[in-house]
């Protein structure tokens, strides 16, 4: 007998996702282990051009990712535009967390603790974002959609995306600052393992939770309409 899954609304997950994931990104940087791979590119630009905040560089980077998805799909896709709106508020949340994160205590024990918490929060947040059937932050959206468009495994795409972000960060900081900044052992560890951990957490969610949302209903209506139009032409 198949176990009945718990049903959850994707809309209720969206706002907590924005604030929790942005907090996890800032907490990983505060831990001293290095910034997360998905935020390393905005961080590098922020260090080179510090007059623009980390949050602002974050949604500039996300806008470029959305534009890349438009090119890959060869059309403007509405959910991607909504994803950019989510990314805009994510960038604001990053700046808000940066304003108070310095109040947390420091020390080697706390730094290890902060890294572990931030790592797990980011993994859980991305796995949840990929399943809540709502527009998600473009840095999470891009690997998922690239995987769907190309047919490549998500874990492989995610790792390649993270490593590419790190490579660009190294290039930016080394070229303009004369040294590599923002990357640490935690950044490298996360880049090479996070895709797998997200997959494990996602598999667990798939076995226990089924998400429904207003966006899902809209997509179903659009598909039915297209089928009716196609049938009418036959």
UniProtKB/TrEMBL annotation:
Coiled-coil parts of chain: none
Keywords associated with the record: Membrane, Transmembrane, Transmembrane helix
The keyword Transport is assigned to this record: no
One Pfam short name: DUF6198
Membrane spanning residue stretches: 12-32, 52-71, 78-96, 108-129, 159-177, 183-201
Superkingdom assignment: Bacteria
Alphabetized PANTHER family for the sequence: INTEGRAL MEMBRANE PROTEIN (PTHR40078:SF1), INTEGRAL MEMBRANE PROTEIN-RELATED (PTHR40078)
Name of the protein: Uncharacterized protein
């Amino acid at each position: 007998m198949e176990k009945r899954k718990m049903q959850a609304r994707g809309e209720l997950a969206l706002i907590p996702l924005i604030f929790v994931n942005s907090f996890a990104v800032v907490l990983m940087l505060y831990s001293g282990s290095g910034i997360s791979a998905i935020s390393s590119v905005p961080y590098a630009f922020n260090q080179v051009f510090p007059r623009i905040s980390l949050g602002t560089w974050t949604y500039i980077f996300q806008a470029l990712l959305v534009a890349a998805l438009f090119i890959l799909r060869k059309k403007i896709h509405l959910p991607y535009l909504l994803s950019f709106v989510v990314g805009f508020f994510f960038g604001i949340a990053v700046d808000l967390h940066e304003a108070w994160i310095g109040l947390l205590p420091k020390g080697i024990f706390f730094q290890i603790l902060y890294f572990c918490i931030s790592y797990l929060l980011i993994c859980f947040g991305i796995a949840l974002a990929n399943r809540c059937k709502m527009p998600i932050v473009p840095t999470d959206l891009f690997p998922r959609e690239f995987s769907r468009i190309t047919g490549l495994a998500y874990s492989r795409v995610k790792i390649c995306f993270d490593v590419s972000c790190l490579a660009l960060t190294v290039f930016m900081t080394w070229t303009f600052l004369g040294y590599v900044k923002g990357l640490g052992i935690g950044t490298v560890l996360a880049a090479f393992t996070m895709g797998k951990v997200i997959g494990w957490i996602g598999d667990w969610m798939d076995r226990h939770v089924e998400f429904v949302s207003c966006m899902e209903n809209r997509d179903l209506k659009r598909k039915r309409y297209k089928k009716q139009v196609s049938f009418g032409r036959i």
